[in-house]
Amino acid sequence: MSRRSLPIDALDRTVAALSDDALAEARHAALAQFKKRGFPTTRNENWKYTDLSKVIELSRRSLQTSTDAERPDIDRIRELQASIDAGWLVIANGKLNRDLSTTLDEDGIEVSPLRLDSKDLRLEDPLADLNLALLKQGLSLRIAANRSTDRPIALLIVDSAGTAPVLSQVRIDIELQANAEIRFIEYHVSAGDDEHYSNAHINVIARPNARADYLRFQDRALHHSQTARLNVQLETDSEISYCGIDLGGRLTRNDLKIDILGQGASAIFDGLYIAAEGQHVDNHTRVDHRVGPAVSAQEYRGILNGHCRAIWNGKAIVHAGADGTDAQQANHNLLLSEHAEIDAKPELEIYADEVKCAHGTTVGQLDEQALFYLRSRGLDRDRAKRVLTRAFATSIVNKSPIPELHDLIGNAVEQRLRELATGVPQ
Amino acid sequence: MLEIKNLKARIGDADILNGVSLSVNAGEVHAIMGPNGSGKSTLAQVIAGHADYEVTEGTVSYNGHDLLALEPEERAREGIFLGFQYPVEIPGVNNAYLLKAAVNAKREHQGLEEIDAFEFLKLAREKMAVLGMDPKFLNRGVNEGFSGGEKKRNEILQMAMLEPSLAILDETDSGLDIDALKAVAGGVNALRDPERAIVLVTHYQRLLDYVEPDFVHVLSEGRIARSGDKSLALELEEKGYEWVREAANA
Do A378 and B98 touch (CB under 8 A)? Predict the structure, then answer.
């Protein structure tokens, strides 16, 4: 058995033990595909900097021990729910927890079990195959045409690991029908002392003139690993405003893929990652401008301290004929330690004539002139550094799409930065 | 209050100050003039404690203590304020936050309690009204997207809130239209006090029409080439800086 694969018999056994439901056929097809390809390796250009050995080893142990996960920490979830006014869907260890979820049976919001058959497979990524093969339960959300609501839908993805490593899969397909407007929060937390690997796959389709505000907030335990894929398809005049914030996790890999399918579409997506000793965070984004005019703009920022590594790879492809495309990319990194490493790579591929594209990447330390300015106002050096570091993060937090969460996220960011400065609790 | 003796300073390999001596007492307003590159801003930055400048010789004492031994923040808490020629934009740091942090850093140093949030706001609004600043500036990022005039008013606002013992204003008048200049001058005049000293670093005589100095010094090639009263500024305006340089070298 190769280091890159999982024990086939354990995989077969696990998939066979899942319920014989509307996903069964798709699971088997995905399993067959996964068995052929296995996990991506660092020989794959897209995975050059992210080695999944740890995730594989953890998955293997999880499949072989098949322990049940710890029960979610109910009090903590209730507390979180009380602090954010939203309709909640709670997915605990890969399964919808109906007790903790609040009712979403509002007019025009339909939640149903995901139904897929093998022809629905979009086999572009081995982790998506793994996700589907081991998926206990998927969700499908449909927001009806012209439906508009201020109250966000919050997807709480909570994973708890007990005494043995645990593996969980999340898959949600979201369709916004024409003119629908919705606000999403995808909130990741974890509990428990042992290792965990979470693999999420979310698809969003925005039909003409639909609009989604989408905030992804990840504040997991530092011994948890995660891979996440978000695929977004934007039809004519539809919009998404997205922000992804990663504060926790040993290994984090996010794949964000946006397909611009209709004229007038707009994708604004930003990200913030904070990493300290031992953390690895990898953001891969890809925008396909298939038609124009349309707009995409991204700004990712990272703050790194200690032996850690971050990767930002932003790819924008302007396909032939997508005239009128405006694609902007920016990635800024603050390195607070000489041991921190960032690999930043903007990639623009342009096959159309009339386009406006730009990218900018910076890697640096705190601005000495700004530090002096603050010190000349009486703030000591440590405080001035903290203030500037927080400010670097704040600019992303403050433009994230769910303003009522700015304080909550700002506080979490500040807490994380304090840990960064004083050494990370493990 | 401030006693500078034979101060020499350099940045990198370039000697900028070549032996400045200056004495500033409480209640006095001094203007330091001079052509570009004469060392005016360097002198201001050295007094505030900028690390890029290396003091190679001389002493600076402030209220009898060795100023050069203090960190920039300690100098600020001891009552020294530098109004920057180029105030730094700090997006993401709220203007009110910085003002309050600055005021409280000084209060803590003085053994006082933190300023009451309501008191702070009231005080800030009062000072802003005097300077003709919209209270909305409190909630904006520090100097973020401010025009040149707004940045300079913001410096004066910080000064007004901090009530320094020694205020050094580095080209606070540059790039201001007449309304902004008057507002800034009004802010400076409001601070004139027998207990306080003000040093105006300026290239032009214009500001001195509104803030009347007790002493005028002309810096040339890193030295004070000439000192006098306010009439020196007028003479300079008429004859130009070349006159001072020639007189100094003669």
Answer: no
